[in-house]
Amino acid sequence: MSSRAGLLGCAVLSAIVLALNVGMVAWASNCPPSEDNTKILYDGSCSTSAKANIAAHAAINVLSTLLLGASNYSMQIAMAPSRADVDKAHSKRRALTIGVPTLKNFRNISILRRLCWELLALSSIPLHLVYNSSILATKVATEYLVTELDESFLQTGISIELPGLSSTTVGQSGVMAGTGYTEVKALFDRILREAHAWENLTLEQCAQSYTPFLLNSRRTLVLVTPSTNDHRALPGLFRMVGSKTWMCDDRTSISPDKLDADGSAAFPCSPKRAIFGYRDHDTNWQEPSNPIYCLAEPHRQKCTVEAFRPFLIVISVFNAIKFVSILWLYFNSSTRHSKLHTLGDAVVSFLNHPDDSTKNLCALDKVPLEKKWRTRSSVVTVRWTRRSQRRADAISGIQCIVSIIMFLIAICGIIILLGKALSADNARGTLQSAFRPSSFTSNQNLAIVGFESLQNATLTGLVVLVNIPQLVFSVFYVFYNSLLSIFLQASEWNAFSLVCGYSVPLLLFSTSIHFLISQAIFLSRISFLDFLGRPSQRFGALGYGNMYGAHPGQLLAATYFSPAILAVLVLSITAFLALLFIGSKKLPGNMVMAAGSSAVIAAACHQRDSGPRTVLEQDSEGNHGDEAATKALKWGDVGYVLQIEEDVVYRHLQFSTRDVMEPSEGAEYA
């Protein structure tokens, strides 16, 4: 496929993504607004909203990968030099790079193509920073009343008296301001009427069911104790709680719960605890009676999937910039061979129009050629030694070391973040539940980055925080893609055939990593409700954070998911090892290393039609460049020589349509 056809495909692809993004803006515009003017795309079951959110982000990352892939391809086309650019650079003894994404050519291309490249590059930054945050799912957590009642209440029902319920006990129960005896009494009346029909759970089931920080499927909990005739203490202990800390074993460190990602959460609990503890205030504990089973009130919260319409508009605008830039490149690439996009383009151009500045340099690899090219005053001859090269030899030793260090630093960074995440999960007792298969679509995970330190963060700050990893990965991906292109181009040059089968796996890898990063750290809106369904504003162990302000009971937070971080780590290590493996493969043949250098390519395209014929006889038709450019080519010793000094014979290496010989060990080439 020609580069012009590729640009047309990229333009069509960016137009399709643009149409979908504009359609998303239109859909969101017609959806009802939330309290803070986001658009509610879905309002219903929390499990459904969690699955819809995952599906939405999968679609977002597919679209963004396709759009950025089209953009990256177009940027490479924009950076590809024309033959005029190469000739100008060669006149200054400066080589350009062919067929590999590089900034080396930047100052040698036209101003308009430079501007086009800059627009394509800069328009990618907003996409990385806001695309995944344009859609978010809300999480809903509810406080609940936990109490103990004599089993006999199931028979007596509403007729039983509750002398243990008073204004004093209500005041000690941890209710929020504005809630008093009347509200709590109404709740107990409902318990007496309805609890017989609630879920009957064993103590272990009860502990497991009320372990999640985001409780959205159950609410009021009754600990049923053995029947007695003494109802003077009914109800027994009761408490308004927002987390599982009321059933912890630890009574020595009473302090507000911490959910920071530093592993400092208080009250480590076992979800299999069968005897429930009770904390009546910050320093003292009271033991409840020995419950025999639990009654749990089924309660399905509603969750939403919301869209930030301004973000969708920003995405559409920069998508449009990419579309226009790619179209400009397409309409300014009308001459098929005006740009040297690939090795094949460069070889054809130099065969048809040889470059005089690179004569007699046919036996030099990229680095020594460019060095001697700038300083030589006469013919450069090289005594040939057999090459045994690997693909990674196409980059310098310093480039190789720097590349390995960069990738190792990135992998170590992911390992450190994963360690902190796992430590925090373990401290909260959610480590095992986080790695259950169902956790990937669960709405019950609450793992907040900097719960206290980031509680006053702005929307912009949180969006940048959760999307910085997307931007960092994209930078590494461009670098990774460049290295891979160099390795594959080295193989293509030596075998003089295209290396296929890498584009699709690379595209799938990019999409997968972007999606996993979007699940590893992401923006969440968490709504906290009290036991009556009103916004909760309580702090620490009694609630979920300082949420006073314009939207009480709501928290916009950066949340993380440890299994996704682990998946990113595994894929990153796999990709790094794959790159090392590809780079370590030996190159076929015994050829000079071009590494995309326009000077090496040009030097290999000089056709020798005259001179002594000491090894091979020249064919009767000659070996003219315009004919060679349209035929199958081979590279090697064509047998033509240059008699430059008396009694000294110089052989020549070039692309030829005829049979060629392997370069001769110890022979002089120029």
TrEMBL record:
| Keywords linked to the UniProt accession | Membrane, Signal, Transmembrane, Transmembrane helix
Domain DUF6536 per the UniProt entry, residue ranges = 4-154
Q: Which residues cross the membrane?
A: 311-331, 394-418, 459-483, 495-517, 560-583
The answer to whether keyword Transmembrane helix applies is yes
Give one Pfam family: DUF6536
Signal peptide range in chain numbering? 1-19
Q: What is this protein called?
A: DUF6536 domain-containing protein
Q: What is the lineage of its organism?
A: Eukaryota, Fungi, Dikarya, Ascomycota, Pezizomycotina
